[in-house]
């Protein structure tokens, strides 16, 4: 009998091959993988930057999940991600070396999964994929290349393309189908409590005043499913979005 995880891996491989042959816009149409096919969080990955955090190196900018920043853009930028910030933002000067968070194989260089101007996707064991977004220049890596944890895979850039507006790295952890998005924190070995103290922007979480304790800490944030309903369409939000909800 073929193990369930192997069956899913075969189905996913066939679907990805079909998408590649038809040019149907990458893996966005592959069914989401079930929990049984995905590795559990066990702090099995590392941080995407070397050295100590600090104002002249890198800092945790925005957390994953129900952030106030994502709430304000829940119907636009994050509308297809159930209204939440589906990754971690690390503030860093442009050109800071970005490192693979774990051993894996390069799946995409400037693929279809967003975070321009440049991005890299690495596939890891356990049907997990990491995305490194807003890279300054196209990575020199090749699709299918094996990488090791800590290996430099690119340079951090700026989501506004200026290197002075919003220089940061956007890091996501997804299932291999790119349909489910996970909070990277329990997968990455780091002192998150200390890093959270120095968060620079968008660090707060949006309140639902009908359930004010829900999703208010970094380790209680929900998963997101591409195209699912908004998770944070609160009847009584706080703070309200300036100028109304977008």
TrEMBL record:
It comes from Deinococcus rufus. Transmembrane segments: none annotated. This is M23 family metallopeptidase. GO terms for molecular function: hydrolase activity. The keyword Chloroplast does not apply. Gene3D superfamilies: Glucose Permease (Domain IIA). Residues 212-246 are annotated as: Disordered. It comes from the Bacteria. Residues 84-177 form the M23ase beta-sheet core domain.
